[in-house]
Design a protein that fits this description.
Length: about 180
């Protein structure tokens, strides 16, 4: 059994392995799960994308890594560091849950755990989350996690939320 990279009260997050392809493909081919992220992939595209994510996971020097979230032994989604800038020490994190795992607090719990893990896994001073303004569920989730607004971020149609290590754990999100 593989060891969890981080744990929360109800979740464990594990390194992505070849055994996780079905979960990855299910998430990335589901238009409902991806409606605010990107166009759903075909099965073949998702399989190729998984190969890339798996290769990235085996190279910790690039800073990006997808993890599998599990609850009671069952895979319920993915979370991880989706972007890393060593120069600015900023990590971007994300989370994507199966429909069956939504509306149970797993998103908030998993996102908080992922942000905390990013600070421990990388020399990050800032951890960001980006989401489309029209995604009310993502907005509510980052508020519940404790992110506050970043008024300096100006990205069309996108909100940027962040934790800043230098602000004693204070968090910021932007509209």
């Amino acid at each position: 059994m593989r060891a969890a990279l981080f744990e929360t009260q109800r979740l464990g997050a594990f390194a992505l392995t070849a055994d996780d392809q079905a979960l990855y493909v299910a998430l990335y081919t589901d238009p409902e799960r991806l409606r605010f992220l990107l166009e759903a992939l075909t099965q073949a595209q998702a399989a190729r994308s998984f190969s890339g994510a798996l290769a990235a996971a085996s190279d910790p020097s690039n800073g990006t890594q997808w993890l599998v979230l599990k609850h009671a032994g069952a895979s319920i989604g993915l979370c991880g560091i989706t972007e890393w800038s060593a120069a600015s020490q900023i990590a971007e994190v994300g989370i994507l849950l199966l429909k069956s795992a939504q509306h149970q607090g797993f998103g908030v719990e998993g996102l908080r755990g992922t942000a905390d893990w990013a600070f421990s896994a990388l020399p990050a001073n800032r951890v960001e989350v980006r989401y489309l303004r029209v995604n009310a569920a993502a907005h509510a989730m980052v508020e519940r996690v404790g992110f506050l607004r970043d008024d300096l971020a100006r990205i069309k149609d996108t909100c940027v939320a962040y934790f800043d290590r230098r602000r004693s754990g204070a968090t910021v999100f932007s509209h």
